[in-house]
Amino acid sequence: MRVAIAGAGAVGRSIASELLENGHEVLLVDKAPSAISVERVPMAEWLLADACEITSLDEAALQRCNVVIAATGDDKVNLVVSLLAKTEYGVPRVVARVNNPKNEWLFNEAWGVDVAVSTPRLMSALVEEAVSVGDLVRLLRFSQGDANLVELTLPPEAALAGTRVGDVDWPEDTSLVTIIRGNRVLTPNKEDVLEAGDELLFVAAPAREEQLEDLLSVRREDA
């Protein structure tokens, strides 16, 4: 998979290193000469250019990329890069970094963003996830399809503890994608039995989140 990353700062370089380790081709683009540090990520391609200009993106051959990541520290730049990647080059997957939570509402399909990653929101979500059991926590928002990646840790007295995945009447527009149990990451199947303490990751429509949280809540006294 070929990935172009706009922004060669600490965030962009870290993403590039991780992708290279996983066997992907990576191009780092930045207009600041000081950001071009080939020795830090020697296996990546580097391009000194302004990612907001069509000529630069032509030089980067963005049409050959499977994914574009707008990872600069400027939300305006990230939005422009996302829009150009999607509308001018038809990049299948565009991921954009949100620096200021106040701008998060802009990072949607209209601006070419498939996945918006808000660093402040993600850090907040991870803190909530670490201290809350039984509460639904939003981790990521997918712009296309109007869906969120959400997590909920099954509390000890959850009504569904001991129930097989295939026997649960899940809400519409939700999908259980992963069960984290201790040190294990499970791809759920119909025969898996839910256990108290399981971390459940769902892709769910925002309108279904309340139903999902109610379904996974503790047993009622009259149950």
Automatic annotation (TrEMBL):
GO terms for molecular function: potassium ion transmembrane transporter activity. GO terms for cellular component: plasma membrane. The keyword Ion transport applies. This is Trk system potassium uptake protein TrkA. SUPFAM superfamilies: NAD(P)-binding Rossmann-fold domains, TrkA C-terminal domain-like. Residues 137-218 form the RCK C-terminal domain. Pfam families: TrkA_C, TrkA_N. Residues 1-117 form the RCK N-terminal domain. It comes from the Bacteria. InterPro entries: K_uptake_TrkA (IPR006036), NAD(P)-bd_dom_sf (IPR036291), RCK_C (IPR006037), RCK_C_sf (IPR036721), RCK_N (IPR003148), Trk_Ktr_HKT_K-transport (IPR050721). Keywords: Ion transport, NAD, Potassium, Potassium transport, Transport. The lineage of its organism: Bacteria, Bacillati, Actinomycetota, Actinomycetes, Kitasatosporales. The keyword NAD applies.
